[in-house]
Amino acid sequence: MSMTTMEKVCEIILKLKKKSISRAALKPEALLVDDLMLDSLDFAEMLVMAEDVFSIEVSLDDAANLTTIGAAVEYFDKRIAKRG
User: Fold this and answer.
1) Which domain holds residue 51?
2) Which portions of the chain are predicted below pLDDT 70?
3) Alpha-carbon distance 8 to 12, whole Å?
């Protein structure tokens, strides 16, 4: 069974932050910076990993709008759908 975009994004975040984030904190409304404590390096690394996992490119303008897990999932789903 393949993983959902939400599950993949959560896996990426867990890889970044190792053991400091609980799975319970990984909700669609969780703020990447404020709730999950991703710094700019973590965020950049998350985008690189997501680009690799989803075979998409994320522009800097788009990245600025990815403030929550849910926003990131929605964005990645749209990019994947456009890619066909």
Assistant:
1) 5-18+27-83
2) 18-19, 84
3) 6
